[in-house]
Amino acid sequence: MERRQRLHGDRVGRDQRHVKARAAALARLALATLLVTALPRAVSQAPGEPPAGKQSGYAWMARETRAIQDDALANPGMLSVLDGEALWARKAGTAGLACADCHGDARLSMKGVATRFPAFDARLGRPLNLEQRINACRTERQAAPALRYESRDLLALTAYVARQSHGLPIAPPADARLRPHVEAGRAEYLRRQGQLNLSCAQCHDGLADRKLVGNPITQGHPTGYPIYRLEWQAVGSLQRRLRNCMAGVRAEPHPYGAAEAVNLEAYLMWRARGMPLETPAVRP
């Protein structure tokens, strides 16, 4: 009986892996077909320039999904915001400091902050995204260990800080030191990669408002991160979403926090400039 159960479990596991692999293959085939049929439209826009009528992914969501995002009591991403609020007031590290000890009331001190990241850090000589800035504060000011990317605490603090800018327009810094990194991010956005030989621009510039395996292809604006994705059943960062996209075209994803990933973030925020921040957004 035990051997039979083990064999049954092995067979179920193989079947599940087969179903997932088949679904991924069908998604890649659908994307390739969509790109071929939409080629004339895909090249009608200047490479790397934002669409003339910029729209958040919210515009493509089902009415029910928009309703979840709009209701703070129903939006599951707000649980992460509440966790972040508690962490904001909690002392950490050998310095025994809380975020609130330096920054006070986040509703005042953090208002507008998330709209300006990634921002150039003069001491490090490179741009930092919001997660990296939070970790820099932990290691430098609180004498606490850095939080792991996609950890519950880092996502919560990021969501809490970003929530204070809800509804404010994305406003990348007018910093000449940041410009080369934005341009490097633009090049990354336009670069074909992976076994499918696709770029970000081919989907999010050329195919926006179409569907891939039932899901809408949006313009790819990072207006609501960290977001709650129904597919993940969890909150996740922009870099997690970028890694998912890269895996989808069968490319090697950048490590979390890699310079290439932060540059791409900087470009995407420049591309979305002027759009209101929605954190925490809800997406399929």
Q: What attributes does this structure have?
A:
mainly alpha; single chain; 48% helix; 6% strand; two-stranded antiparallel sheet; Cytochrome Bc1 Complex, Chain D, domain 2; 284 residues; 12 helices
Show the helix and strand layout.
Blueprint: H1 2-37, H2 39-42, H3 63-70, H4 77-88, H5 99-103, H6 106-109, E1 119-121, E2 126-128, H7 130-142, H8 152-163, H9 179-190, H10 200-204, E3 211-212, E4 215-216, E5 227-229, E6 234-236, H11 238-248, H12 259-271, E7 282-283
Helix pairs in contact: 4-8, 7-8, 9-12
What is the structure about, briefly put?
By secondary structure, the chain is mainly alpha-helical. Helix content is 48%, strand content 6%. It has helices spanning 2-37, 39-42, 63-70, 77-88, 99-103, 106-109, 130-142, 152-163, 179-190, 200-204, 238-248, 259-271; strands spanning 119-121, 126-128, 211-212, 215-216, 227-229, 234-236, 282-283.
